Amino acid sequence: MKPLAGLRVLDCSLGAGPRASALLADYGADVIWAEPPGGDPTRALEPATVAVFGRGKRSLTVDVGTEDGCEVLTGLAARADIFIEGWQPGRARQLGLDFETLKARNPQLIYASISGFGQDDPNRDLPPYEGLVHAVVGSMAYQAGHREGPVFQGLPFASIGASQLAVVGILAALYRRQEDGVGRRVETSLFDGALAFHQMLWGESDASLAAGIASLDGRALLSRSRTRLITRTFLCGDGQYLGIHTGAVGAFSRLMKVLGLDDRIKPVEGGFDMGTPLTEAESQVLESHIHGVFASHPRDYWVKRMMEADVCAIEHLAPTTCFDEPQVRHNGMIATLNDPVLGRIEQVAPGIRFDDCAPPVLEAAPPPGRDTAAIMASGGWTAEPPPWRTTPTAAVDPDRALMAGLNILDLGAYYAGPYSSRLLADFGANVIKLEPTVGDQLRGIERPFFGAQAGKRSIAANLKSAALRPAIEGLIKWADVVHHNMRPGAAERLGLRRDQVHAINPKAVYLYAPGWGANGPFMKRQSFAPMLSGYVGSSFEVAGLYNEPLPSVGNEDPGNGLLGAVGMLIALLERRRTGTSRFCENPQLNAALGMVAHIVRHADGQPIGAGRLDVLQMGVEALESLYETADGWLCVVAREEPEIRAIEAVSGVKVLADARFATPKARAENRDDLADQLRAVFETRSTAAWLKAFAGSAAPIVQPADRDIVHQLMNDASQRRIGRIAEVRHPDKGNVREVAKLVRISDTGEVPHRLAPALGEHSKEILIWLGYSVETIEELKRKGEIRVLEPGRSAAS
């Protein structure tokens, strides 16, 4: 049986919401998809998206513009566990489908809202369109491009992030509901979803501002290497592309040896290269030789050489090409379905594995309204009592943090794995980071480390020390979840294999986040973001038609962290319901595939849903595009008739009255003609003039943010009030401002934001709690078996 079997979900949303309910359906939830008459508009615009995120659901068509339609939804909500909506803020209340109204009839209802910008954001009235969100949040300023200026985003990572944040919030609220029986409101947005990916690189401190250190971004990956961290794509001798990443210990030096540059660029002691600068001469040698060396042999030659040298080297492939790769097949990541619209297709399967098993393939997405009559006749669900309804075992305490009492031992390194536990730390989970005495390799790059490790405590210890084995076992006994992302074989050598952990604590959920998989033909290959994004086709999607691949802002590192948090919570829910503790695996490869799940492959071998971004990286449709003005840029995203009419009225360009542009299909076929007309008009006036002309109209048009957006966002009072941005004092860096909580949940206590811990900051207090004497701790410190941050010493990461 799937772990969420029997969970009742009523999804009334469009856009990101169906992605969220699809993730729940994949693991057994019974989802009723309430669509407008005629079906979700996405069916016509993006049929491949619906083929994936509509699978395994029942379809009900209902008109919320009528009293009868709202009554139908109210009745279903009274029997549901989860209600998902994506209306504009305030609309649910107008319909009588708001949280307070529905909770009055169903006190255990978990109510999830996924809007464009959030209930309290200054841009709350803008429609929830992917392109608008990326323009406002700053993705377009930071996405690498083949030209100057903002770049339209070719990957829907705002929707991906929003849907997964919503599921994390839903499952966390459900976990708490099993204790106190209280339904809660979960609120997030596409804006939050985009920030979940930018969180990896965005933030600032007084020290970074004083030093003139800018936020990292994808464009920097295209430039000359100034440090011993190489994260770039190279053209090989056969015209194919290969991504190289030297984030692993010693990888940079091993690469220099393979390339024949080790006589001029010497290794550093210990192999901890990340963040170590190159001299000017070394940087020049590297840049002047590396491209030519890679161009001297075909890609397969370099893949073999790099695998032999244990350097991360990953092929950049076109979308769906990797469907035939052996590890993808080994992981069970390709499902074949007979879609009622597209026919026989292959699509990305669910990415989380429990006890080495992939969830069974679900049935294809239903036609609109297929199940309306049956749902109306049965009232939606027939089982009584509802399987997931609970009898409270704890008193209601609205001041208690949502995940208070949950203990997580995190042995992970870098970003993708540790971001999972950081998300739960935001809800009050007690997370201890157990790292080696030299520290997590990612500590060499401040911003990603801070993003993945906020809210945790750190103990730095020699994991091979016999004297510290009781401490490690004590932490395992304490933990509800044990997580790591070590390469296959490493955990076994440390006594941390899943059976070894379960021998110590049979109740612990074991979450493993490898790169390629726990087993399989590529299990030993290194993986680093954004290289697996290139493997699954994301790098071509963000580059635009016919262009060479580019690094994607939305990549598999945050994506894998989000997916891991979902897996962790599903496993915890099942443990609470059945007493069974699962082994949970979420490979980075699977998460990368999830980022392009909206692209499917037809039986004829052709991808469907790929290649929407044009060659100039301006847009995906003429009415979802960037346009240059006389002095800057505008972002236009118009889908509904009133929005298009407003553009016609102000611009003078006839759209709906022209047969070439009258329907979405016609506009797609004549995209260039419409774009040319709009381009000629928009370039005649300034950005400010156009914004003034469109002010007060229904036209969704904004000025895309520039690269100052990070500083603006970190100092935006409204974002701090919402809780998205936190400012915390650091002993060395002054005030640090960074992305904080991206999901808001009602009736829970606030969790103060805590910065990532310094190396060994909590070693002493944790060891004392585990029963070690002060004298023993001092002896372990003297022998170098632990690192301890002494009072008054630098807390720099």
**Low-confidence segments, ≥5 residues, pLDDT <50?**
none
**CATH-assigned homologous superfamily of the domain at 622-702:** formyl-coa transferase, domain 3
Q: From the 3D structure, determine the CATH topology of the domain at 622-702.
A: formyl-coa transferase, domain 3
Helix run count: 33
Question: Can you name the CATH architecture of the domain at 622-702?
Answer: 2-Layer Sandwich
Strand order of the biggest β-sheet: 13-19-18-17-14-15-16-29
**DSSP strand count:** 29
Specify the oligomeric state. Answer: single chain
**How much helicity do the residues have?**
25-40%
- In whole angstroms, the N-to-C terminal distance is 45 Å
Share in β-strands: 15-25%
Form type: globular
Structural class based on helices, strands and sheet pairing: alpha/beta
Provide mean pLDDT, rounded: 95
**Class of the domain at 622-702 in CATH?**
Alpha Beta
Q: Summarize the main sheet.
A: 8 strands, mixed
Specify Rg, calculated over alpha carbons. Answer: 26 Å
